[in-house]
Amino acid sequence: MTTRVTIVGAGIGGLVLARVLHVHGIASAVYEAETSVGSRAQGGQLDIHHDTGQPALELAGLTEQFRAIIHVGAEADRLLAPDGTVLIDEPDDGAGLRPEVLRGELRRVLLDSLPADTVRWGHKVAGARPLGDGRHELSFTDGGSVRTELLVGADGAWSKIRPLVSDASPGYAGMTFVETYLHDADTRHPGAAAAVGAGSMFAVAPGKWIGAHREPNAVLHAYVALHRPAEWIAAVDLTDTACVAAEFDGWAPELTALITDCDTGPTVRMIHTLPTDHRWDRTPGVTLLGDAAHLSPPSGEGANLAMLDGAELGAAIAAHPGDTEAALAAYEAVMFPRSESAALEALRMQATFVGAHAQSELTSTLAREVWTGRASDSAR
């Protein structure tokens, strides 16, 4: 079987691409390793930025549906000292510059906007090979295969499509997240709930920090970051909450409760990154978007850039009917410098947290920019 446009990965970046193509009357097939839409938890909240994610959803014709799932009030920000002192407390101003939505709900909106047969679940890619003339063949772990005229890798950090265009592979970024959930927080975890407040909370010390945000139904979703070498991470058991909490000895109990009192987790996530200047020569018939193209440390931009990549790639394909190479060249010419700039900014933010004067260097704006780049932003 040969398809015109094949997208690998049904994360929000790949789905935005499929939706924009659909808006323009262009059919696509999305191949996803997950067996069904509900087979895996989709992570926590995403802040959808006014200059990246929101324009992408507008190009997809989904602004109204997006606004219907916004978690009202969740743009509030708090910066705390390790002893629990509130340094910054900014309420949600209602401006809508980065409203919060649950990733799973946004994914549902995108899936509902596509023809039912667009996503092919349970198709884990084993490899991809060029056939010449810009065509490619995908092989799946179940023994099946498909051929395509245009192949897009939207399959995240460990992309199976990336080797077609680049020899780059992700390297450890020197930072590991430990992710936890606290449920029914206002009743069962009142100290932690009060510390987090109505939206996002962030507390930082050199080389480590604790962040959390309030999700609907009184759920607290926390990310504990340790800037440590890979050897150190391998030598300790970060699934042991007592082991993690020991790294924050002397911190306020309402903050360490986000570690020790978790109801779900902890989940350990080592953060990886591609080179900041990652790009490739124009390769006929194939390109990448999102983390497959420009994986970087969390900075608040990952999911937003993936959506913008997908929207702009879809628009470029529609604007160059019958000329795939012109479409891909136009898309990459804009995507490469944008993603490099975002990756450099992510590294600057990460360096701020590692430094000996991390807390004193944090301004309200920087705290917001960094904390809105939560671990769940490693989206496809």
If you had to describe this structure to a student in words, what would you say it looks like?
The structure is a single chain. With 380 residues, the protein is of the alpha/beta class. It has two domains: 2-75 and 97-169 and 275-352, FAD/NAD(P)-binding domain; 171-273 and 361-367, D-Amino Acid Oxidase, Chain A, domain 2, CATH 3.30.9.30. Helix content is 34%, strand content 26%. It has 14 helices and 16 strands. The chain has helices at 12-23, 53-59, 63-67, 103-112, 185-188, 190-196, 230-235, 241-246, 253-260, 291-294, 302-319, 324-354, 358-361, 364-371; strands at 2-8, 29-31, 45-47, 77-80, 86-90, 100-102, 119-120, 125-132, 135-140, 145-153, 171-182, 200-205, 208-215, 219-226, 264-273, 286-288. Strands 1, 2, 7, 8, 9, 10 and 16 form a seven-stranded mixed sheet that branches. A hairpin with a 5-residue loop joins strand 4 and strand 5 (86-90). Helix 1 runs parallel beside helix 4 (103-112), helix 2 (53-59) packs parallel to helix 11 and helix 6 (190-196) crosses helix 9 (253-260). It is globular. The model is unreliable at 356-366 and 371-380 (pLDDT under 50).
